[in-house]
């Protein structure tokens, strides 16, 4: 039976500044942690030298081409566009007292353009980057000083854009700091668990301070967190596997538990004891953490399995997390297991746990697109993937889960975060650029563009039940 999503459900797509904008030293912008990772967030860190090729220097040139891109999103019927502000455009070093006017003026133009089309911006304050200077001189979030720098930045952007931006997110995939500490958090790779969790604590406090500032300064706004929602299943029904899965899921749910409840969950006491971690938590930190998020947001790409048994479990994607393969699931070209039903599971779990509205702010299929003889991209595989996931969102809505919206990842082809490839494409809109940087940057709708337009227009009624 066809199901109609609620009228106020936000439909759209999601991006990050460093994966689309390019122009990463234009108008006074400082370098960010992303700018020294030309091979992606799991690649080497390479200091910038003039003339070195880095695909992100131009990315898809959203910096200049945003009017065309936003127009195309509007043609698809987007009611929401998720983007991030590059912190280093506003505070090039990160520790200045005054912001960079040219950086502020740039995002004015973006938000004005979105308003023109009645598209609600959903803005991430920090998406897998921070000013490089903070990483080099403060070891990123290792330093408590960064809390104040981030709060200053957040207050500046709330003040400036609060009239037009009513939906905010603090840190993108905050739980990934555990697995890749440098990209989003500027924390040196190889840091000890003690250093890592102290840096994470600083980020959690900063997130809560941003929530407080947002509540004070933009009273009619809503601000959420953002986690990578990669749920793990027990591979077998052995109780040890079930408990192992519970613990692995706590690794990421811990972040939401603090951000949504306002204090550290009790299960962390044992973990910290076993890892010999003693955190420096001040009374001011305890008070700050009490300011909780309004909604919970997450990305969803895959699920994995864990086991304590001596089995032949294959590992799925070593670079991301140590996730085990699931014999019932197929994988993408990049080895990410496709699990639409898992999205319904995550939605139900998170809603049961937090009783706060949820927002799916990333989901999508990274695939190689090959144009047909007419030069068109018939991305039926992407349509299938998105249909099957959105169908489960519809099921979750019918389960009673409160869901604010869905922004698919990379509505327009962009640079991959983990591998810095252009060829790992997620878009409804093709961008003519390859991994070596060749191409005209011209935009062209794919078949999925028209499919998504129809789904949005029908409020989800056009989704079809996945084949069993
Ligand atoms: C999420 C990130 O982890 O996954 C995005 O928030 C990223 O920045 C997306 O692009 C997809 O990952 P990738 O590596 O395919 O770009």
From TrEMBL:
For this protein, the record's InterPro entries field holds: GH, GH_1_N_CS, Glyco_hydro_1, Glyco_hydro_1_AS
Q: Does the keyword Transferase apply?
A: no
- Keywords annotated in UniProt: Glycosidase, Hydrolase
GO BP term (any one) = carbohydrate catabolic process
Q: Which PROSITE patterns match?
A: GLYCOSYL_HYDROL_F1_1 (PS00572), GLYCOSYL_HYDROL_F1_2 (PS00653)
Q: Name one GO cellular component term.
A: cytosol
- Catalytic residues in the record: 362 (nucleophile)
Q: Name one Pfam family in it.
A: Glyco_hydro_1
Q: Which parts of the chain span the membrane according to its record?
A: none
Q: Does the keyword Hydrolase apply?
A: yes
GO MF terms, alphabetically ordered? beta-glucosidase activity
- Which family does this protein fall into? Belongs to the glycosyl hydrolase 1 family.
The name this protein carries in UniProt is: Glycoside hydrolase family 1 protein
> What lineage does the source organism belong to?
Bacteria, Pseudomonadati, Pseudomonadota, Gammaproteobacteria, Vibrionales
């Amino acid at each position: 039976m066809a199901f109609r999503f609620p009228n106020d459900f936000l439909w759209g797509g999601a991006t990050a500044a460093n994966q689309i904008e390019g122009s990463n030293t234009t108008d006074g912008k400082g370098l960010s942690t992303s700018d020294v990772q030309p091979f992606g967030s799991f690649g080497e860190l390479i200091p910038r030298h003039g003339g070195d090729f880095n695909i992100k220097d131009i990315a898809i040139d959203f910096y200049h081409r945003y009017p065309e891109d936003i127009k195309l999103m509007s043609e698809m019927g987007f009611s929401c566009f998720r983007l991030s502000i590059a912190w280093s455009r506003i505070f090039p070093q990160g520790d200045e007292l005054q912001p960079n006017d040219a950086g502020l003026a740039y995002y004015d133009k973006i938000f004005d353009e979105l308003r023109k089309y009645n598209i609600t911006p959903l803005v991430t304050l920090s998406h897998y980057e921070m000013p490089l200077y903070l990483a080099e001189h403060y070891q990123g979030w290792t330093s408590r000083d960064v809390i104040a720098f981030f709060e200053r930045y957040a207050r500046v952007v709330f003040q400036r854009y609060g009239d037009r931006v009513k939906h905010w997110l603090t840190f993108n995939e905050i739980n990934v700091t555990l697995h890749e500490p440098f990209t989003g958090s500027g924390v040196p790779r190889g840091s000890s668990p003690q250093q890592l969790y102290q840096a994470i604590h600083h980020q959690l406090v900063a997130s809560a301070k941003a929530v407080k500032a947002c509540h004070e300064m933009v009273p009619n706004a809503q601000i959420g967190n953002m986690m990578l929602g990669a749920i793990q299943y027990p591979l077998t029904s052995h109780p040890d596997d079930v408990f192992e899965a519970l613990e692995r899921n706590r690794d990421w749910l811990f972040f939401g538990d603090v951000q949504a409840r306002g204090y550290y969950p009790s299960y962390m006491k044992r973990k910290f004891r076993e890892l010999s971690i003693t955190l420096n938590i001040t009374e001011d930190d305890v008070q700050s953490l009490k300011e909780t998020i309004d909604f919970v947001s997450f990305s969803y790409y895959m699920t994995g399995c864990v086991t304590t048994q001596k089995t032949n479990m294959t590992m799925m994607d070593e670079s991301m997390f140590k996730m085990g393969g699931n014999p019932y699931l197929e994988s993408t070209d990049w080895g990410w297991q496709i699990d639409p039903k898992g999205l319904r599971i995550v939605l139900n779990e998170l809603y049961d746990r937090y009783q706060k509205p949820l927002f799916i702010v990333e989901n999508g299929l990274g695939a190689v697109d090959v144009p047909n003889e007419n030069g068109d991209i018939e991305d039926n595989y992407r349509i299938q993937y998105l249909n099957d996931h959105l169908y489960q969102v519809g099921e979750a809505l019918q389960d009673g889960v409160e869901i604010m919206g869905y922004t698919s990842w990379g509505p327009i082809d962009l640079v991959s975060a983990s591998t810095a490839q252009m060829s790992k494409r997620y878009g409804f809109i093709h961008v003519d650029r390859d991994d070596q940087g060749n191409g005209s940057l011209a935009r062209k709708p794919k078949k999925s563009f028209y499919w998504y337009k129809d789904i949005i227009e029908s409020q989800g009624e056009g989704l079809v039940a996945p084949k069993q």
